[in-house]
Write the structure tokens for this entry.
Amino acid sequence: MIEKPANISTIMEFLLMGFPDDWMLQRLCAALFFLIYLTALMGNLLIVSLTTIDPHLQGPMYFFLKNLSLIDICYISVTVPKSIMNSLTNSHSIPFLGCASQMFLFIFFAGAEYALLIVMAYDCSAAICHPLRYETIMNRSACVRMVTASWFSGCVYGSIHVAGIFSVNICGTNIVHQFFCDIPSLLALVCPEEQILEYAFIIASLFFVFLCFIFMIVSYVQIFSAVLKIPSSQARFKTISTCMPHITVLTLFLFSGIVTYLGRDFKSASSLNLLMSVLYSMLPPSLNPLIYSLRNRDMKTALYKLLGGKV
């Protein structure tokens, strides 16, 4: 039975209604989600394994890539298994604490991934602009501190938003028009006069994200400036190609998030909403391993060795 509570403290569960009402479509979505999840899991676990056991993949870039894959595994595991189970059992409920935990973890890993992509941009900049001092700048201790800061910033980011959403009153139903608990869908349930707190958090976080984005732009301006000074066109192409996987992953991550959060109506369920949710919650973790493994010769060499082939 769908409740219509007036206060968030009286809500015991939320109803995740992001899937289509048709039984067959729900099963098809569950099958598609499972395939995407399996692809993301296998690809990221493969990268973690290769960067752990292969002695040639122990540099700063691969250390960051290993952490990116770990984040992607956690990122997609927060939402997809629960949504598949709900679809197969035809049960749409999620406990109050489960919803809060899911939202915190999702934002936590998304924030950590964004922070790590900033670190990886700095790594590219240091490698190309300061090649002689690269090992000194990106020493093991510095890399560990940067990765720790990325995970910590994601934790803080998630905590702030969960505190903002779950400390206010709800004026609508407990129906969430999404297949997982995310900020916009839950914000649509909050009383209009109390949404200002979470909107303040969103504006503040967007300002911080924008500053970080400017930092990445500055890093890439320095990279392209250094590349243009290289006399050989072949050397320029080879140098800039080392940054292409990062640029591709960063573009995919930011584009999918921006399109989703700016282009949806969160007060109603629709196939378009579901598609756009899949775009930013599943696509980056699934494609990141493919992008890095196909464009990196050392990764392909390590994979051939792992499979027992000859390079």
Q: What stands out?
A: Residues 96-129 form the longest helix (34 residues). The two ends are 61 Å apart (CA to CA).
